[in-house]
UniProtKB/TrEMBL annotation:
<dbReference type="GO" id="GO:0005975">
    <property type="term" value="P:carbohydrate metabolic process"/>
</dbReference>
<dbReference type="InterPro" id="IPR048395">
    <property type="entry name" value="Glyco_hydro_31_C"/>
</dbReference>
<protein>
    <submittedName>
        <fullName>Uncharacterized protein</fullName>
    </submittedName>
</protein>
<dbReference type="InterPro" id="IPR000322">
    <property type="entry name" value="Glyco_hydro_31_TIM"/>
</dbReference>
<keyword id="KW-1133">Transmembrane helix</keyword>
<keyword id="KW-0326">Glycosidase</keyword>
<keyword id="KW-0812">Transmembrane</keyword>
<dbReference type="InterPro" id="IPR017853">
    <property type="entry name" value="GH"/>
</dbReference>
<keyword id="KW-0378">Hydrolase</keyword>
<dbReference type="Pfam" id="PF01055">
    <property type="entry name" value="Glyco_hydro_31_2nd"/>
</dbReference>
<comment type="similarity">
    <text>Belongs to the glycosyl hydrolase 31 family.</text>
</comment>
<dbReference type="InterPro" id="IPR050985">
    <property type="entry name" value="Alpha-glycosidase_related"/>
</dbReference>
<feature type="domain" description="Glycoside hydrolase family 31 TIM barrel">
    <location>
        <begin position="310"/>
        <end position="616"/>
    </location>
</feature>
<keyword id="KW-0472">Membrane</keyword>
<dbReference type="InterPro" id="IPR013780">
    <property type="entry name" value="Glyco_hydro_b"/>
</dbReference>
<feature type="transmembrane region" description="Helical">
    <location>
        <begin position="12"/>
        <end position="33"/>
    </location>
</feature>
<dbReference type="GO" id="GO:0004553">
    <property type="term" value="F:hydrolase activity, hydrolyzing O-glycosyl compounds"/>
</dbReference>
Length: 720
């Protein structure tokens, strides 16, 4: 993997030359293009400010319009440059009347202002450009906005008929689409997934045939032709993606379980923004800045990313105790493997809602953690301990509290839960006292010994025992939307971890609108399998999808995955081959977790693990990872990127989900098949690529077939 110095400097010179030429070209392009409607609103100048260090990304595409299709069944989004519409949104509703440039708004009273602060600051609505009137008292208004030089539109559907539904669909045939959320079976692009219509909620992964949305979702979609679509954050939304291979992306607002009309006081709506720029990376970069405006998200502490995170995930069953933990740490040191953090995941406390170690099983927890932490000498680095926590109160409630601090359920609605099942004792996140109690538990725990928290669960689906819906919940204040539960959990995590240097020691287990916290996003658990259902093949599409959603610091579970039986972890370790291939891939990912240890296998695996981890620490980190982390901290841009990042118009690159770019210079092509000793590698068009494994140079826009890769090797290519 070493490049001779002299050669490297020549490549750097060529790369620098290309960079300068590109910049000059872009500047000329920008000068010759018509100027956007500068200074239209105050917010616009603010958004431009955050973009000013990247002028090449402000792409003026000229003023476009939204047209009605002659069939009167879809909206056509156009720009002045493109001959046809760049996006078509179909609706199945019966159109009665269209008014263009309405003098007094679309019966202004019907169109409520936005709810809570939506992301993408600066996309204010002014007068509508078009009003559409449908049967069932359904209206739609289309608004124009220019944001950071991009033409955007806000489309707002609304009805006072609570029995109605509002449906909009996009064909996945015309362009490739990405984003929308983590999935329990992740593929790339969205044409390859199959998500049946379901409430748009965060879910905990369970193996099941039906594909579900996963722990982190964001109603943000990008297409290969540079269009982006962002739905508002709190809609009674159902989504399907290529369900039954229909090649459709379907958005449906309806008051149906778990949403109830009672919780949405302002009527039924479906509301989204559409923007268009020159390419997918260009539209994404601009919108990332807007999403995070005005503050940069920051990043977890370097130590969490540079070193592996060791965890007890693989032995979290009932027999888990202090002795096992001591042996584990002893072995890490004995085999001279790099370490810095250990996360204790699993059954360490007496019960959910109890934030301390079970003294019977961990009699010396405090002493041990202090000892590991303070082991500071040049020979023995220190080890920081974090623990997994859940948004629960104790089974018997919080002692001394007059009001219940957990979410309660209106059991009169449902006669009873299925056979003897009790509703979970989830923290009532809307109750200030409950939040205060939870935070003080965590602070006490931290003051006693531990350094960080893995905020497990927090999925919005968790708050609904089977058959319950939003209006059956008894909370202190009403939740605006189930996903607000996930969002507020992230806020708590942010506030517990942020004020101290320990900020970066948090890992978030679920996320909605949580990009601003800059935490590690735990996309796991992953399965010990080679497949796309949270097996090895899902690692890349998951990481690049999370990256697009604004979560650059993605953790895809421990190397080798886990055998899951329901939510329990079986004790079977992954096969040696799966472990080795997974380790090679994870070495190049933003966060690397080790739960199955290399010494479970053989001396050869231990040596390999040590050399990969040292390579990550001493070569990859300074050269590629650290600069990408720094950029992500400032901009929210992904660390691990899809191939189209460097070749937006290359239609093959738009499909690849078995290779990725680390930053913009290194292409990584791991082997993802059992017993394979070769693979095909696609090199994106428009660049030359230096093969680090075989020390040759290839031009882009071609497949290398039957490219041989030994069991302990991984193919990587430097973009020249
Ligand atoms: C966790 O440990 C407690 C006490 O040691 C035990 O009662 C409980 O069953 C354990 N839970 C699991 C999931 O193993
Ligand atoms: C942990 O469990 C093992 C057996 O499973 C036992 O030998 C050991 O004494 C236990 N240690 C503690 C601290 O309970
Ligand atoms: C909400 O919680 C506060 C304490 O945080 C309590 O005083 C109040 O009575 C609660 N209200 C309801 C409706 O539960
Ligand atoms: C999964 O767990 C159930 C009980 O929790 C057990 O009966 C079953 O044998 C387990 N399956 C496997 C494959 O371990
Ligand atoms: C590759 O890029 C070159 C220009 O850089 C272009 O002429 C060619 O058509 C592209 N090939 C493909 C397959 O996109």
């Amino acid at each position: 993997m070493n490049v001779p110095k002299r050669k490297l400097s020549r490549y750097l010179k060529i790369a620098a030359g290309i960079c300068i030429l590109t910049t000059i070209f872009i500047i000329i392009l920008m000068l010759t293009l018509p100027q956007p409607f500068v200074g239209k609103t105050q917010t616009q100048s603010q958004t431009l400010k955050i973009l000013e260090d990247r002028p090449d990304k402000v792409a003026d595409v000229g003023r476009g319009t939204v047209l009605l299709h002659p069939n009167r069944d879809s909206l056509l989004f156009t720009t002045v440059e493109s001959p046809g519409p760049y996006l078509k949104i179909h609706f199945p509703h019966k159109l009665l009347q269209v008014v263009n440039d309405p003098p007094n708004g679309c019966r202004a009273g019907y169109f409520k202002p936005d709810g809570p602060q939506e992301p993408y600051a600066g996309m204010t609505r002014e007068d509508p450009q078009m009003c559409l009137y449908f049967d069932r008292n359904l209206h739609a208004a289309v608004y124009d906005t220019i944001v950071a030089g991009m033409q955007c539109h806000h489309v707002y559907w609304f009805t006072t008929d609570n029995q109605a539904s509002i449906i909009n669909t996009i064909s996945l045939h015309e362009h490739n689409w990405y984003g929308g959320g983590g999935l329990s079976e992740q593929r790339w692009p969205l044409q390859r997934v199959g998500v049946p219509l379901q409430p748009y909620l965060t879910n905990k992964f369970t193996s099941s045939a039906e594909v579900k949305f996963d722990s982190f979702i964001e109603p943000y979609f990008v297409s290969s032709n540079g269009a982006a679509l962002m739905l508002d954050s709190y809609l009674p939304l159902f989504v399907s993606i290529n369900s039954n291979k229909d090649s459709m992306l379907v958005f449906k607002s309806i008051f149906q379980e778990p949403y109830s009309a009672k919780s949405f006081k302002t009527g039924l709506s479906l509301s989204y923004k559409v923007c268009k720029s020159l390419s997918a990376p260009a539209v994404h970069e601009t919108l990332s800045y807007l999403r995070l405006s005005p503050a940069a998200p920051g990043a977890p502490a370097d130590d969490l990313l540079q070193f592996p995170i060791w965890s007890s995930r693989a032995f979290q069953e009932a027999g888990f105790n202090e002795t096992r933990l001591i042996v584990f740490v002893h072995n890490i040191k004995k085999w001279k493997l790099p370490y810095n953090h250990l996360f204790i995941v699993g059954n360490y406390s007496k019960a959910r809602g109890v934030f301390s170690f079970n003294e019977n099983k961990f009699p010396h927890s405090h002493q041990l953690i202090m000892e590991w932490k303070e082991m500071q000498s040049s020979k023995i680095p220190n080890l920081f301990v974090g623990v997994e926590v859940f948004p629960h109160v104790p089974e018997s409630g919080v002692p001394g509290s007059e009001v219940p601090l957990h979410i309660r359920y209106d059991l009169s609605v449902k006669q009873s839960l299925p056979s003897g099942q009790k509703p979970p004792m989830l923290l009532d996140i809307t109750n200030e006292k409950a939040v205060h109690w939870f935070k003080s538990q965590l602070r006490n725990f931290r003051d006693m010994s531990v350094h960080g928290f893995l905020f497990a669960d927090g999925h919005s689906q968790d708050i609904f025992p089977p058959g319950f819906q939003q209006s059956d919940l008894i909370t202190n204040r009403s939740l605006l939307h189930p996903n607000q539960y996930t969002e507020m959990y992230g806020e708590i995590a942010g506030s517990v971890a942020a004020p101290t240097a320990a900020r970066g020691f948090s890992i978030l287990g679920s996320g909605y609108l949580a990009q601003k916290h800059g935490f590690i996003a735990d996309a796991g658990p992953f399965r010990s399998a080679w497949d796309h259902q949270k097996g090895l093949k899902a690692v890349i599409p998951t990481t690049i999808t999370y990256g697009l959603l604004g979560y650059p610091f993605v953790l895809t579970g421990p190397v080798g995955g886990l055998f899951l039986n329901g939510s329990a972890v079986a004790r079977t370790p992954p096969s040696q081959e799966l472990y080795i291939r997974w380790l090679s891939l994870a070495t190049y990912l933003p966060v690397l977790e080790l739960a199955w240890a290399p010494w479970f296998y053989s001396q050869e695996v231990i040596n390999h693990a040590r050399s990969m981890l040292e390579f990550r620490q001493f070569s990859l980190w300074p050269k590629y990872l650290s600069p990408a982390v720094e950029e992500a901290a400032k901009t929210g841009l992904p660390i691990v990127r899809p191939l189209w990042w460097v070749a937006p118009t290359d239609s093959t690159a738009q499909f690849i989900d078995c290779e990725f770019m680390l930053g913009s210079r290194l292409l990584v092509a791991p082997v993802l098949m059992d017993r394979a000793r070769s693979r095909s590698v696609y090199l994106p068009n428009g660049s030359r690529w230096k093969d680090n494994l075989k020390n040759t140079v290839h031009h882009g826009g071609q497949w290398l077939t039957q490219y041989s890769v030994g069991l302990y090797d991984i193919a990587t290519f430097e973009r020249l």
